[in-house]
Amino acid sequence: MPYIKTRDGTDIYVKDWGSGRPVVLIHGWPLSSDSWDAQAMALAEAGFRAIAYDRRGFGRSGQPWTGYDYNTLTDDLADVLEATGATEEATLVGFSMGGGEVARYMSRHDGKGVIAAGLISSVVPYMLKTEDNPHGVPEEQLRSIGDGIKKDRPAFFRTFLQQFLGVGFITSPVSDEVVDWAWRLAMQAGLKPTLACAESFGHTDFRADLAAFRVPTLIVHGTSDKTVPIDPTGRAAAKGIAGSQLVEYDGAPHGLTVTESDRFTNDLLTFLGR
């Protein structure tokens, strides 16, 4: 390592820190595994094995033309688990788009080797507003993401990441440098993967996957998340996953792993039993 090759030949960059029970961290759109560094370091220092990888098309991973649907992305996760030997007593933790891989892994791969799961600011179970999902995000709002990226990707992500991290006109929970860092991570991704994954996380329905969660599941979501609203996602997931634990961060934005880093890391370690 640091690279593994998936079943379709795509190179996936993997970071593998520490030793002990494996905790696999799946990043959000449009970032990379580097966005998990604070938690990965804390996990390794607490006696866990922290495994984080760059989703295909993002960070240092390969950028194939195809494979940005959730079935393929979840097969990539399965290949990472197999290649790293993290196939027993693993915890899967997905942030934002990454929650979709966790949910689809539980159904498509029958949760093989998984003893616990985390959905953090996650898109699960369904982002899109429909007649039977009235609290979802309207199609035109989701479409505007792709339109903005095509028009001026650097400018779009500057504005998008400010909302992502809860930056206001007067106050901000993070420094300008943190926004710059997140922007650089976003700009590492390819244009095709960025657009295709936005389509996937905005339109994939995970409601049927919820019944496949048969392990303790931590759900963390900010009540002021404007990127992935809590009602059709975190709160709906908690209702649909038996025995799950929902922790709402009052006033927190989407990027709570950064803005509420210490609190979230402590909550995750507590959930893991340390």
What does this structure look like?
With 274 residues, the chain is of the alpha/beta class. 41% of the residues lie in helices and 17% in strands. It has nine helices and eight strands. An eight-stranded mixed sheet has the order 1-2-4-3-5-6-7-8, sandwiched between helices. The longest helix has 26 residues, at 139-164. The mean pLDDT is 97.
Largest sheet: 8 strands, mixed
Number of helices: 9
Determine Rg (CA atoms, Å). 17 Å
Strand order of the largest sheet: 1-2-4-3-5-6-7-8
The counted number of beta strands is 8
Shape descriptor reads globular
* CA-CA gap between termini: 28 Å
Report the average pLDDT across residues.
Answer: 97
Question: Can you lay out the helices and strands and say which pair or pack?
Answer:
Elements: E1 3-5, E2 11-18, E3 21-26, H1 37-45, E4 48-53, H2 70-84, E5 90-95, H3 98-108, E6 114-120, H4 139-164, H5 176-187, H6 191-203, E7 217-222, H7 231-240, E8 245-249, H8 256-259, H9 261-272
Parallel strand pairs: 3-4, 3-5, 5-6, 6-7, 7-8
Antiparallel strand pairs: 1-2, 2-4
